[in-house]
Write a structure and sequence with these properties.
heterodimer; A: mainly alpha; B: globular
Chain lengths: 313, 303
């Protein structure tokens, strides 16, 4: 890629290409490696997913076009999707997304009121859960919520007499979703949280000074009128990361319960549905249609976040 | 000293405390009161990972279960490393794969995204705006949503069962490019123009001026790439058939899912040890680079 840069100096006979090379060629040479990877592994898969979603494809025979049938089936005949997957995903996203986001902001705001040393230590601890994956943490959570009397939670509840026999936390439809939400919230202080913390610390003290002269009299007003408006970029970044994180966290239900589909579809999210149809049933076309729906949902929510926090300039 | 105190109290908001205080103030007590229990609670699983990995079998299966280890042992670790996996690949091989893959991926992704960010920020070319716009949309990209097309593409490119399949798909990180580009935007154009007048080529400007100035942003994507690559078990699961090319994260995955099976007692201990080995590098890398990350996220980072 560096080869193109040499053109700069040998410009004896400025042809059109030469002139272009000296003006813009370098720039393209610099962008090229990223653009290539980006196109191959991000742009093309999205386009292919879109294309496949209009086909029937079982990975053995070449895809055959079947129009909107996948989408129609998804909306009218996929009982599991309508009864479990969609409500589960919405419930999960609505609690974990805004919940984790508000929590991240509040924690960042409180941390910002502390001197640097304790702040750094506490921030590190809060960030630490997002440094590791559900896979690594499965050991911990599985032990904690283990279904026999040796599980920490069961053992504790048995000893304190709150339950008479061990509860199958991870296999019971009524608990799985709650545990999934809990675990995901625990690990939701990621990059967005760091951005917000940094954003709050960056706000110039004079703004608060000016605010108090303008009649801001309590912390709540201060947050609404000064803190949040002054850190819109970080708030937007945090929101987008929260949305993406929420939809990516989907694997947690399968990791915790150890099966896909999750027991009685209690923890089944769109992501699991895609895997179920794509990799277990080999209905790739249908899975692609579900993928497109997922991408559209993420895009929709991100747009919404953009409306809330996007700068107007 | 006295003067400094007065300035800080003048600037420190309404309650004589406020954002980024230099020292302790009674108004901070309430934040400690709220934060401490929460932080301790968040810390519990991490403490558990450490303590669990050193538990001897009788403590792993003690009833009632104990949270902290009382007689620490390193037997879980020696068991783990003594064990050959199903296909006869030693655990150290998985670990070696993971380390090598992670190092190469970090270096390559830094190279790829800093060069692109430099061009997007400081060079003029036709597709500039549109490229950055597409990248910004791709921030919202959910990889799991396109697992299937990705699989098909990787298959077509003959990358299945190669070493490169671990690295190439991890190189384009929209968040990384976004952060670095915004960071380079913070470097005044005059600096670059002055260098150009002095006859510096683009490569020289990139190498001698831009790179040294964006160290914090580089640290940030190093961390992001590290976490994504080191923890990634999915690539080994989906795209790699040969055991000797799989990663430690994948091995941990199989260990935790099969631990309940044939050799439950040894399996649990080894899974605990493996979890710790997975977690500690994350922690160390973040500890080393966290200052840089914070400064990326603040000043020029996102404005």
């Amino acid at each position: 890629m560096d080869g193109a840069i040499i053109h700069d100096e040998v410009e004896e006979r400025p042809s059109k290409i030469r002139r272009w090379a000296s003006r813009e060629g370098n720039a393209y040479a610099f962008v090229l490696p990223y653009a290539l990877m980006f196109t191959i592994f991000i742009v093309v898969p999205v386009l292919v997913a879109f294309g496949l979603s209009f086909t029937f494809f079982d990975t053995i025979q070449p895809p055959t076009f079947n129009g909107l049938r996948n989408y129609i089936t998804l909306l009218t005949q996929d009982d599991v999707f309508m009864r479990y997957v969609l409500p589960n995903t919405i419930r999960f996203a609505v609690i974990v997304g805004p919940g984790g986001y508000v929590m991240a902001f509040m924690l960042a705001w409180m941390l910002a009121q502390l001197p640097q040393a304790p702040r750094t230590i506490l921030a590190l601890i809060l960030y630490s859960p997002s440094m590791t994956t559900a896979v690594a943490m499965a050991v911990v959570w599985k032990t904690l919520f283990s279904g026999d009397q040796n599980g920490y939670l069961n053992s504790y509840l048995l000893q304190s007499g709150l339950i008479q026999e061990p509860v199958q936390w991870l296999q019971s439809p009524q608990y799985l979703m709650t545990i999934m939400i809990f675990v995901t919230l625990w690990s939701s202080m990621g990059v967005g949280f760091l951005a917000m913390l940094a954003g709050i610390l960056e706000i110039s003290p004079e703004l608060y000074e000016a605010g108090s002269l303008d009649g801001i009299s309590n912390r709540f007003q201060e947050i609404i009128h000064i803190t949040i408006p002054s850190m819109k970029p970080q708030m937007l970044f945090g929101a987008v990361m929260a949305i993406v994180g929420t939809f990516q966290a989907g694997a947690i239900g399968v990791t915790l319960s150890g099966v896909n589909p999750t027991p009685q579809y209690a923890g089944q999210l769109i992501v699991n549905h895609i895997e179920d149809f794509g990799f277990l049933r080999y209905e790739m076309g249908y899975a692609a249609a579900v993928s497109v729906v997922l991408l559209l949902m993420v895009l929709f929510f991100s747009r919404f976040a953009n409306r809330l926090f996007g700068s107007n300039d | 000293m006295k003067r400094k105190r007065r300035t800080s109290s003048r600037y420190s908001g309404i309650y004589n405390s406020g954002i980024n205080p230099k020292g302790f103030h009674t108004s901070q007590i309430k934040f400690y009161v709220i934060l401490t229990p929460l932080v301790l609670f968040m810390l519990l699983p991490i403490v558990f990972v450490f303590s669990h990995a050193f538990k001897p079998p009788d403590e792993l299966f003690a009833y009632p279960p104990r949270f902290l280890v009382t007689n620490p042992t390193t037997k879980n670790f020696s068991d783990l490393f003594a064990r050959m996996s199903v296909a006869g690949v030693p655990v150290s091989r998985y670990l070696f794969n993971s380390i090598l893959i992670t190092l190469i991926t970090i270096a390559a992704s830094i190279a790829v995204s800093t060069t692109a960010a430099y061009a997007l920020s400081k060079k003029k070319f036709k597709l500039k705006k549109i490229l950055f716009a597409i990248n910004t949309v791709a921030l919202m990209f959910v990889p799991i949503a396109v697992t299937i097309p990705r699989f098909l593409i990787i298959e077509r490119l003959n990358l299945i069962d190669t070493f490169w399949v671990h690295i190439l798909p991890a190189l384009a990180i929209p968040v990384g490019l976004f952060l670095i580009k915004q960071f380079i935007d913070g470097i005044p154009d005059e600096v670059v123009e002055a260098a150009q007048i002095d006859g510096a080529s683009d490569v020289a400007i990139y190498w001698r001026i831009i790179l040294p100035m964006i160290k914090p942003a580089i640290a940030t994507i190093a961390i992001l790439t590290f976490q994504a690559t080191w923890n990634n078990a999915e690539i080994s699961t989906l795209y790699v058939n040969s055991e000797s090319l799989k990663t430690f994260a994948f091995y941990l995955n199989t260990l935790t899912t099969t631990a309940a099976g044939a050799n439950a007692v040894a399996g649990q201990g080894m899974a605990a040890a493996a979890t710790l080995i997975m977690f500690v590098p994350n922690l160390i890398i973040f500890l080393i680079l966290q200052n840089q990350v914070m400064s990326t996220m603040s000043h020029s980072g996102l404005k």
